[in-house]
Design a protein that fits this description.
- The radius of gyration is 24 Å and the shape is elongated.
- The longest helix has 37 residues, at 102-138.
- It is mainly alpha-helical.
- It contains 13 helices and no strands.
- The protein starts with a helix and ends with a helix.
C-alpha cells in the first residue's frame, strides 16, 4: 500500500467516525436532559430494576438456587403438599399450579420481555427511518410508493393480524417481535418520520450542503439521519411498550410457542384457577400482572420524557 493509499484510507475512517459522532450527538444531548426529567428518572429506575432481574436469574441458578427446585420450566418442590402455594421461606412468591417457583419464573420472564421489546423496536425504527426518511427526502415517485405501502400497514391492526397468524402457527418471541416491528414501523411511524424529514429538508443548512456539492448519501448520512435520531429513540421506546403488551396478550390466549413469559404465567394461572383451592392462586396471578404493568409503565414514562425533550412545544404547555 502506497503512502497516498494510506492517507486516503485514514481520511475515510476519519470521515466515517465523524459521521457516527454527528449522529450520536443528538442522542447524547437527549440523554443529558432525560436524566433531569422526573418521568425519565422514574422510568429509567424501573428499567434498571428489570435489567437487574434479568442478570439475577442466571446468577441465582448457578450459585444459590437448585435447578431441581427453581428451574422455571421443570422445577418442583416435593415438600410443598398443595400447589399453587402461598409465599414461604423457600418460595418467596409461592408456587404455581404445577409446583414451579413463581419468583424464578418472574425473573426469567423479564429476559423474554426485553428480548421481544428491544427486537421489535429495532425492526420498527429501522423500517420507519428508512421508509419515512427516503420518502420525505426524495419525494416524487419514491414518496408515492413508500407512503402507499404505509397507508396499507396503517389499516392493519397489529394485534388482530397477529391473533390471526397465531391461529395458523405457534408464534415464538422472535417472530412476534419481527411481525410487530414490521406492522408498526411501516405504518404510522413511517408517516411521522416522513413529516419530520420534510421539516429537516427545508432547513438552510441542507441547501448549503447541496450548494457545496454534497450528494444524496452525504446529506442523508450527515444531516438528515442525525436529525431523525431523537424521534427514532422515542419511537423505539414506545414500540417496546406495544410489543410487550401484544406478546403478553398473545401468550394469555395461548397463541405462542411453549416458552416462559409473564403472559403465559397468567394464562396458566387462570386456566387452573378453578382446579385448586384459593390459597395460592393470587400468588401465581398477581406478580406477573404487576410485572407487565410496571415494565410497560417504565418504558412509557421514558417515552413521555423523551417526547417532552424532542418536542419543546410540549414543555411550554
Amino acid at each position: 500500500m502506497t503512502v497516498l493509499d494510506k492517507i486516503s484510507s485514514q481520511r475515510k475512517r476519519t470521515y466515517f467516525w465523524q459521521g457516527v459522532r454527528a449522529r450520536m450527538k443528538p442522542i447524547h444531548a437527549a440523554w443529558g436532559e432525560l436524566r433531569r426529567h422526573p418521568l425519565g428518572v422514574i422510568g429509567m429506575t424501573l428499567i434498571v430494576i428489570f435489567a437487574l432481574m434479568v442478570v439475577a436469574h442466571p446468577l441465582l441458578m448457578k450459585t444459590i438456587w437448585s435447578r431441581v427446585l427453581y428451574d422455571p420450566y421443570l422445577g418442583f418442590d416435593s415438600r410443598v403438599v398443595q400447589n399453587p402455594s402461598p409465599s414461604s421461606a423457600r418460595h418467596l412468591l409461592g408456587t404455581d399450579g404445577m409446583g414451579r417457583d413463581v419468583l424464578s419464573q418472574l425473573l426469567y420472564g423479564a429476559r423474554m420481555s426485553f428480548n421481544v421489546g428491544i427486537t421489535a423496536a429495532l425492526f420498527a425504527v429501522t423500517l420507519s427511518t428508512l421508509f419515512g426518511g427516503m420518502a420525505g427526502y426524495f419525494g416524487g415517485v419514491i414518496d408515492l410508493i413508500m407512503m402507499g405501502i404505509s397507508d396499507v400497514f396503517v389499516l392493519l391492526p397489529a394485534l388482530v393480524i397477529m391473533l390471526i397468524i397465531g391461529l395458523l402457527v405457534r408464534l415464538d418471541w422472535f417472530l412476534i417481535a419481527l411481525i410487530f416491528g414490521i406492522l408498526t414501523g411501516l405504518g404510522s411511524q413511517a408517516m411521522v418520520v416522513k413529516s419530520h424529514t420534510l421539516s429537516i429538508r427545508s432547513k438552510p443548512y441542507i441547501e448549503a450542503a447541496r450548494t457545496a456539492g454534497g450528494g444524496h448519501f452525504h446529506i442523508l448520512w450527515r444531516h438528515i439521519l442525525p436529525g431523525l435520531m431523537p424521534l427514532a429513540l422515542v419511537h423505539a421506546v414506545m414500540t417496546v411498550v406495544g410489543a410487550v403488551l401484544t406478546e403478553s396478550l398473545l401468550s394469555f390466549f395461548s397463541r405462542t410457542h411453549d416458552y416462559m413469559t409473564w403472559g403465559s404465567m397468567i394464562w396458566l394461572g387462570q386456566r387452573t384457577f378453578r382446579w385448586f383451592n384459593e390459597a395460592g392462586q393470587w400468588n401465581a396471578l398477581i406478580p406477573p400482572a404487576l410485572a407487565i404493568m410496571f415494565f410497560c409503565s417504565a418504558f412509557y414514562l421514558v417515552g413521555r420524557a423523551l417526547d417532552d425533550i424532542v418536542n419543546p412545544r410540549l414543555r411550554q404547555r
